[in-house]
C-alpha cells in the first residue's frame, strides 16, 4: 500500500505553486535561491528519509499515538494543537490563493467570497470523510490528473518559446550564499512525507515503503520545473513582475488542436483538483490531530457515515478560512505565506527530532529488557 | 384438525375441507385448490381411492419426501397458504407439498441484454432461479440459506454464497440487517434493497440487481453474496463496487481489446452525460473564452435566436428528454413508438426552428440521452440520470470551475460510500479479499 504514500508526495510536490514557493524563489533568484534549492534537495531528502524510517517503527500508529506514548497528556495536547494549526493553515492558504487565482482568471466579476465558499465547502466535505475514503479519493483524483500534468509539463519543457539561456544564466547564481526564505520555501516541495503522520494508521503492520528514490527524483524535478520554467518563458528579469507566476506561465502556451486554445484553462482545472486534494488532506489531518487531543480518543480509519464531530471541526476550519479572507489582502497573504513556509520548516525539523528521540529512547529501553520479543517491544513502546 | 383450521380460516370460502373414507381408512383433508396443482391427484387421491393398498399407502406416507409429519398445529395455516395439502390419518397429521408453480420456463433477458452471451434470465419462481444458479455454479460448497420476510406476504428469500470464498464479516452484517427487515408486503427486490441499505437516501445503488444467472455465477465465484427472492426476476448481489455496475457481461465474452475499448467508452459516456449539460451552461454563460474563438462563435451563433439564458434552455430540453424517457417506459408497447416519433420530431427539429433552443443544445441533449443508456445496469443508469442536475445547478452559479469542484465532490462521495462495509469506489483492491492490505480495523 506504499503507493498511496507516493500520491501524497507527488501532489504536495506540485501544490507548491499555490503556496507562492516559485514566487518566493524567484524574488531571490539572484541572491541565493539556486543554492538554497540545492541545499533543500539534500536536506529535504534527508529529513524525509529519516522521518519515514522513524514512523515506520510504529506500525499502525499515527503521529498523535506515537507522541502520546512518550509525553504526558498536557504536552501531547500542546504539540497536537500546534501541529493541527500548521496543517490547517496549509489548506487555508491554498484555498485562499486558489480562489484568488480563479477570481482573477476565470470569473473576474464574481464576488470573491462566493467561489471561496464553494472551495471551503468542498474542502469540508472531503476532509470530514474517514481516512480510508480520503485515501481512495486521492488515488482516483491523482490518476485523473496525471494526463493533464504530463501534458502541461511536456508542453512547457519542449516549448520553442522556452529560453534555455535565461535558465542557464539563472542557474549560474548557484555560488551565491543561500537565502534562508528560499531554503525554507524549497524544502516545502519535499513535505509530502508528513502525511504519514495520519496515514501510517492505514499501513498494514510490517509494510515497507520501497522505491524511496521517488522522493528526491520527483520532488527535485517539481522544484526545478516550478522555478526554472517561468524564468525560461519570461526572462530573468521579467519573471519577477508577476504574482500568480505559474498561471501566467501556463498562459504562455497554446494548444494547436482541440477545443481549448489556452493551456491556462487546463492548468486551472488541474489545480482545482490538486488544491482540493491538498485542502482535503491537510484539513483531514488537522481534524484527526484535534480529535486525538481527547484523552480517550481511539483512532478509527473506517467510519461510515462520518461522525458529527468531523463536520463541526471542519466547519470551524471553514469559518476560520473566511475570517482570514476578510482580514487579508495580497500583501498580507504573501507575508503569511512566507512565515508559514519558515515555521513549517522548523516544525518539520522538530517533528523529526522528536520522533528520533522517541525511537532512540525506545531502542535503549529494549536493550535493557532483552526478553521481550521484538514485535511486542516495538508496539509497546 | 379440520375444526381448528375452520376456526382459523373463517371466511376463506375457497379452502377445500373434506373427510374422505375409502372403506378402510378415514382421511381428513384440507387445501386451497387455487394454490395447489394437479400433483395432488397422482400423489394422494389415486393411491387413496381406487388403487388403495393400506400397506403401500402407509409406506408412501413415511417414505415419500413430499409427505412430512406435521405435529405443530400452529404451523398448519402457514402450510396451507404456501400450497401444501394437509391430511390427517389416524390422528396423525401430514402435509403434502403440491404448490403450483406458474413459471416452468426460463425467462429471456429483458433489461440486461447481451449480444452473444447466454440469453436466459431469472424468472419469478425462486426454485427455478436456484436451479439456474446451481447449473452454472456446480459446486457442493454453494450454500443456500432460507429466509421468510414480509409480515403479510411471507415472501421466501434464499441467500446464496460460496462458503469458502465468502467474506464472513459481510455475511454477519447481512444476517444482522436481515433481522431488521420490517416490511408488510415484500413484492420486488427493490424493496429488499432499500431495506438492506443502511441509509436510504443514497444517490448511487450500493447493491446490484441483476436478471442474469451468468452474472450471479461470476459474482459467487468472487465471494459475493446473492439474494434470490420469490416473485422477483432480479437477484441482489452484495457487496458490490462501482465497477460492477459499469460491467456488461459481454465484456467477459468479447476478446480482450474489444472489451477494453467498450469499457473505456462506457466510462467516457457516463462522464459526458453527467457533465455535458453543466459544461454547456458554463461555456455559454460564463466562460466562452475557454474554447477557441471559432468554436465559441459557432456556439454563440447557434444561440442567436434564443431569447433566454442558457440554463433555462438546458432545463427545457432536459425536462423534455426526461419526460420522453419516462413516457416510453410507461406506455404500452403498441403506443410506445408514437412517443418516440413525436418526441424525436418535436425535440429534434421543431424546437430549434422555433427558436426555443439552440441547435447545439439539441446535440447536447441527444448525447446526454444516448450516453445515459450506455450504462449496463438500470439502477445505476437512473443514478447517473439524476447526477447531472447538481452539476447543472452548480454550473449556473459558478461556471466551469464549479463543475470541476463538483466533480471532485462526487468522487469523494463515491469513495466514501460503503457497500456492506466494503469500499464502493477504490482502485486496485484485490478481487476476492477486498479487505486485505489496508483498513485493519
From TrEMBL, chain A:
Keywords: Membrane, Transmembrane, Transmembrane helix. The keyword Transmembrane helix applies. The chain crosses the membrane at residues 5-26, 32-56, 77-98, 110-128, 140-158, 178-199, 211-233, 263-283, 304-327, 339-360. It comes from the Bacteria. This is Spore germination protein.
Automatic annotation (TrEMBL), chain B:
The chain crosses the membrane at residues 225-243, 263-286, 306-325, 355-375, 387-415. The keyword Ribonucleoprotein does not apply. InterPro entries: Spore_Ger, UPF0353/GerABKA_families. The lineage of its organism: Bacteria, Bacillati, Bacillota, Bacilli, Bacillales. Keywords: Membrane, Transmembrane, Transmembrane helix. It comes from the Bacteria. Belongs to the GerABKA family. This is Spore germination protein.
Amino acid at each position: 500500500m506504499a503507493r498511496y504514500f507516493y500520491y501524497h508526495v507527488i501532489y504536495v510536490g506540485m501544490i507548491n505553486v499555490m503556496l507562492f514557493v516559485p514566487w518566493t524563489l524567484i524574488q531571490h533568484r539572484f541572491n541565493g535561491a539556486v543554492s538554497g534549492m540545492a541545499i533543500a534537495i539534500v536536506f529535504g531528502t534527508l529529513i524525509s528519509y529519516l522521518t519515514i524510517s522513524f514512523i515506520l517503527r510504529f506500525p499502525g500508529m499515527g503521529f498523535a499515538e506515537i507522541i502520546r506514548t512518550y509525553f504526558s497528556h498536557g504536552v501531547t495536547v500542546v504539540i497536537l494543537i500546534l501541529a493541527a494549526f500548521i496543517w490547517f493553515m496549509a489548506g487555508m492558504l491554498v484555498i485562499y490563493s486558489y480562489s484568488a487565482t480563479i477570481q482573477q482568471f476565470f470569473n473576474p466579476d464574481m464576488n470573491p467570497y462566493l467561489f471561496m465558499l464553494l472551495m471551503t465547502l468542498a474542502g469540508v466535505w472531503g476532509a470530514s470523510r474517514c481516512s480510508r475514503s480520503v485515501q481512495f479519493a486521492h488515488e482516483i483524483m491523482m490518476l485523473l490528473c496525471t494526463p493533464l500534468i504530463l501534458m502541461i509539463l511536456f508542453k512547457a519543457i519542449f516549448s520553442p518559446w522556452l529560453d534555455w539561456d535565461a535558465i542557464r544564466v539563472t542557474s549560474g547564481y548557484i555560488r551565491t550564499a543561500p537565502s534562508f526564505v528560499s531554503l525554507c520555501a524549497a524544502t516545502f516541495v519535499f513535505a509530502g512525507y508528513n502525511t504519514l503522520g495520519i496515514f501510517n494508521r492505514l499501513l498494514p503492520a510490517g509494510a515497507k515503503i520501497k522505491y524511496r528514490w521517488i522522493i528526491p527524483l520527483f520532488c527535485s524535478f517539481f522544484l526545478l520545473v516550478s522555478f526554472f520554467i517561468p524564468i525560461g518563458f519570461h526572462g530573468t528579469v521579467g519573471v519577477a513582475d508577476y504574482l500568480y507566476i505559474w498561471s501566467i506561465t501556463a498562459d504562455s502556451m497554446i494548444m494547436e488542436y482541440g477545443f481549448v486554445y489556452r493551456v491556462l484553462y487546463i492548468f486551472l482545472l488541474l489545480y482545482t483538483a490538486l488544491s482540493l486534494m491538498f485542502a482535503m488532506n491537510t484539513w483531514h489531518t488537522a481534524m484527526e490531530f484535534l480529535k486525538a487531543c481527547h484523552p480517550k480518543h481511539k483512532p478509527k480509519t473506517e467510519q461510515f457515515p462520518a461522525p458529527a464531530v468531523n463536520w463541526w471541526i471542519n466547519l470551524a476550519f471553514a469559518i476560520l478560512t473566511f475570517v482570514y479572507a476578510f482580514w487579508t489582502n495580497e500583501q498580507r497573504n504573501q507575508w503569511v505565506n512566507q512565515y508559514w513556509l519558515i515555521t513549517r520548516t522548523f516544525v518539520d525539523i522538530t517533528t523529526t527530532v522528536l520522533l528520533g528521540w522517541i525511537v532512540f529512547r525506545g531502542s535503549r529501553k529494549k536493550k535493557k529488557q532483552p526478553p521481550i520479543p521484538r514485535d511486542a517491544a516495538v508496539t509497546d513502546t | 384438525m379440520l375444526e381448528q383450521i375452520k376456526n382459523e380460516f373463517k371466511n376463506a370460502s375457497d379452502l377445500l375441507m373434506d373427510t374422505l373414507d375409502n372403506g378402510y381408512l378415514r382421511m381428513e383433508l384440507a387445501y386451497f385448490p387455487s394454490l395447489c396443482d394437479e400433483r395432488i391427484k397422482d400423489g394422494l387421491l389415486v393411491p387413496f381411492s381406487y388403487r388403495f393398498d393400506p400397506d403401500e399407502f402407509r409406506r408412501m406416507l413415511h417414505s415419500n419426501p413430499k409427505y412430512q409429519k406435521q405435529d405443530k398445529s400452529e404451523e398448519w395455516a402457514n402450510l396451507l397458504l404456501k400450497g401444501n395439502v394437509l391430511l390427517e390419518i389416524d390422528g396423525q397429521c401430514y402435509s403434502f407439498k403440491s404448490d403450483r408453480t406458474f413459471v416452468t420456463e426460463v425467462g429471456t433477458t429483458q433489461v440486461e441484454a447481451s449480444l452473444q452471451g447466454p440469453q436466459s434470465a431469472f424468472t419469478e419462481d425462486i426454485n427455478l432461479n436456484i436451479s439456474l444458479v446451481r447449473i452454472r455454479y456446480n459446486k457442493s460448497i454453494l450454500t443456500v440459506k432460507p429466509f421468510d420476510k414480509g409480515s403479510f406476504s411471507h415472501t421466501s428469500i434464499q441467500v446464496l454464497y460460496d462458503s469458502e470464498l465468502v467474506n464472513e464479516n459481510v455475511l454477519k452484517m447481512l444476517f444482522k440487517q436481515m433481522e431488521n427487515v420490517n416490511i408488510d408486503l415484500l413484492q420486488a427486490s427493490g424493496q429488499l434493497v432499500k431495506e438492506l441499505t443502511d441509509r436510504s437516501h443514497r444517490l448511487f445503488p450500493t447493491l446490484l440487481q441483476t436478471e442474469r444467472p451468468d452474472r450471479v455465477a461470476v459474482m459467487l465465484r468472487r465471494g459475493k453474496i446473492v439474494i434470490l427472492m420469490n416473485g422477483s426476476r432480479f437477484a441482489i448481489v452484495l457487496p458490490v463496487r462501482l465497477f460492477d455496475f459499469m460491467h456488461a457481461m459481454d465484456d467477459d465474452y468479447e476478446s480482450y481489446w474489444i472489451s477494453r475499448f467498450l469499457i473505456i467508452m462506457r466510462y467516457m459516456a457516463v462522464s459526458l452525460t453527467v457533465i455535458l449539460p453543466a459544461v454547456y451552461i458554463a461555456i455559454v454563460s460564463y466562460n466562452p473564452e475557454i474554447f477557441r474563438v471559432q468554436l465559441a462563435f459557432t456556439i454563440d451563433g447557434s444561440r442567436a435566436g434564443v431569447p433566454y439564458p442558457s440554463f433555462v434552455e438546458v432545463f427545457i430540453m432536459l425536462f423534455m428528454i426526461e419526460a420522453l424517457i419516462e413516457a416510453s417506459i410507461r406506455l404500452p408497447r403498441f403506443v410506445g413508438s408514437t412517443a418516440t416519433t413525436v418526441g424525436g420530431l418535436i425535440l429534434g427539429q421543431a424546437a430549434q426552428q422555433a427558436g426555443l433552443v439552440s441547435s447545439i443544445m439539441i446535440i447536447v441533449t441527444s448525447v446526454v440521452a444516448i450516453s445515459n443508456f450506455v450504462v449496463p445496469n438500470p439502477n445505476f443508469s437512473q443514478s447517473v440520470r439524476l447526477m447531472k442536475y447538481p452539476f447543472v445547478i452548480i454550473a449556473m452559479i459558478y461556471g466551469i470551475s464549479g463543475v470541476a469542484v463538483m466533480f471532485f465532490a462526487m468522487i469523494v462521495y463515491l469513495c466514501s460510500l460503503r457497500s456492506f462495509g466494503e469500499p464502493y469506489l477504490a482502485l486496485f483492491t484485490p478481487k476476492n479479499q477486498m479487505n486485505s492490505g489496508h483498513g485493519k480495523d
